[in-house]
Design a protein that fits this description.
By secondary structure, the protein is mainly α. The chain contains eight helices and no strands.
């Protein structure tokens, strides 16, 4: 009986100490938190999503957007650059990188990324 109790306790401990949430679960929590205007906690959830899946592009994009909303422009740029490492043609990451460089008044760098966004496949279709 004692051995069985110990096994049950060990299994219970393992089960409760494991993080069973998926990256998508954390991402969904982040979206909910952001909708509640709680971007700092949303960023924490996205940190967990990215820790579980370092190639989760949407998590980087949203984390960058939330950081931009909080005024953490350099950190947001870093997130968008991670996206571009994973997908060098990601127009949204190019555009948002340019916007954040504009907010930092680094216009030369902003123009590089904004022009890349316009020259991308998506950007070609949105020109006037």
């Amino acid at each position: 009986m004692t051995k069985q109790l110990i096994r049950v306790l060990i299994l219970l401990l393992l089960f409760t100490s494991c993080d069973l949430k998926s990256p998508q679960d954390y991402y969904n929590l982040a979206i909910t938190l952001s909708e509640q205007k709680n971007n700092k906690e949303a960023i924490e959830m996205l940190n967990k999503a990215i820790a579980k899946d370092p190639k989760f592009i949407n998590a980087y994009i949203n984390r960058g957007a939330y950081k931009s909303d909080l005024g953490y422009y350099e950190e947001a740029i870093n997130d968008y650059k991670e996206v571009l490492k994973l997908d060098s043609e990601n127009t949204l990451a190019m555009l948002n990188t340019g916007r954040n460089y504009t907010r930092l008044r680094k216009y030369d760098k902003a123009l590089v990324y904004l022009n890349k966004a316009l020259d991308s496949e998506v950007g070609i279709h949105i020109r006037f």
